[in-house]
Amino acid sequence: MKRVVCVCLAVVCLAFAFSCSKKSGKAVDQTDKSGKVEVKVGLLCIGDENDQGYSYNFVQGRKEATERLKKEGINVSWVTKYNIKEDSSCADANIEAAEEGCKIIINNSYGHEDYMLEVAPKYPDVQFVSCTNQKSHISPMRNVHNAFASIYEGRYVAGVVAGMKLNEMIEKGVIRPNQAVIGYVGAYSFAEVISGFSAYYLGARSVCPSVTMKVTFVGSWGDATAEADAAASLADKGAVMISQHSDNTTPATTAQRKNVFHTGYNADMTKVAPSASLISTRIDWSVYFYEIIKAFVEGREIPKDWCKGMKDGAVVMTALNKSIAAPGTEAAMNKAISDISSGKLQVFDLSKFTIGGTIPENKIMYDSFAAVKKDAIVDGAFRESYTQSAPYFVGKIDGIEWLNEVY
Fold first, then answer.
1. pLDDT for 93-118, tens place per residue?
2. β-strands 315-317, 277-283 pairing
3. Which of 7, 112, 300, 389 is the most buried (most CB within 10 A)?
């Protein structure tokens, strides 16, 4: 009888311990010899570090967050999988990461989410994150999450830098005011891309009123050749400034080859195009990685939908290429950053642009998914990434010419 009682007590104790662990959320149940907490995290990338752009930026965020957490007694072991396509192989990669013991798995591309959501129910104790997306945060599953940053803020600032350079070219007689043309290489005709280039254009126009923009969509997030061809074509069509929402550095190197200027995305591209690339904007993913890993270790909830911007250091600018930037650019850029961070400047101020010749209305500015959200227009401005982290601005602003559409 005593043996039965002891066994029963042991079972109860184990069950209680497991229950406490689940309640606290601390799935991290081991420490190293120094007493530091250890946690394994998966990072699934659509590309790899060689793109020197999108996936490279995630890897940099991984490194920075790891160092910061280490100083606080949290050791992170990463399982990083590169070149994960937006197909069923993504589901396989999520399964592999979960089976390898990852407690958090981060998918970094828009097309990864559906495959991640297929896998998540099978691993309820693993937290799955889809970056730049919008389905997970409304899912009833508690272990799926969305995350993005207010990158449109950085796009606007990059536009200010571009506009200053265009002004300098006009003042020096290099181009006439009506030749202040920007060429923009976009991946797809999605809200994320539309929001970004619209913000960029508004930033440029805030200092260079005569600017216009042409956009070409390449139908891929990371086709280096297609991006280079698109940038070359835009330059041939009269663009004297190239920018991009694509993963590689080839728009920058093409701009340099075509003797036009450039602003980038995800990484500093002045190293590969020193005589063309002025600046880049990027999301500092270390801010998010740090927050969710620390929250997980401490047993706190990971946000279902996370979004921060410039004022929180989640959206940053790379170093300005002062050797080619126009005089006064740094001051103009810093003022825009300050005004955005304080809320004084609203990127999509409705008084600053028109669509079809008129001030835009709500119904033509949301994508179909975000239309179910509450109104994002507040005090005369369209608040991007306000009702959800993923962008939803899809208005076709006057002054921007779409050369094609790719969905």
1. 999 999 999 999 999 999 999 999 99
2. antiparallel
3. 112
Strand intervals (E) in 200-324: 212-217, 241-245, 261-265, 277-283, 305-308, 315-317
pLDDT tens for 19-51 read 333 333 444 545 555 567 999 999 999 998 877
Report the relative pairing of strands 277-283 and 127-131 from DSSP bridges.
Answer: unpaired
Average pLDDT, rounded, for the chain: 89
Least confident of 104-108, 154-158, 377-381: 377-381
For residues 341 and 31, give the distance between their C-alpha atoms in angstroms, rounded to a whole number.
Answer: 39
Q: How far, in whole angstroms, is CA 301 from its chain's centroid?
A: 22
Look up residue 326 and give its DSSP letter: P
Kind plus residue range of the DSSP H or E element containing 197: helix 191-205
- Cα separation, 385 vs 375, whole angstroms: 12
Whole-angstrom distance, CA of residue 65 vs CA of residue 80: 14
Give the list of residues 6+ apart from residue 14 with CB closer than 8 angstroms, or none. none
Would you say 314 and 64 are in contact if contact means Cβ atoms under 8 Å apart?
no
Which CATH architecture fits 151-283+315-402?
Answer: 3-Layer(aba) Sandwich (3.40)
CATH level 3 topology of 30-150+285-310: Rossmann fold (3.40.50)
Q: Where are the domains of the chain?
A: 30-150+285-310, 151-283+315-402
List Cα–Cα distances, 293 to 39, 70, 104, 301, in angstroms: 8, 11, 8, 10
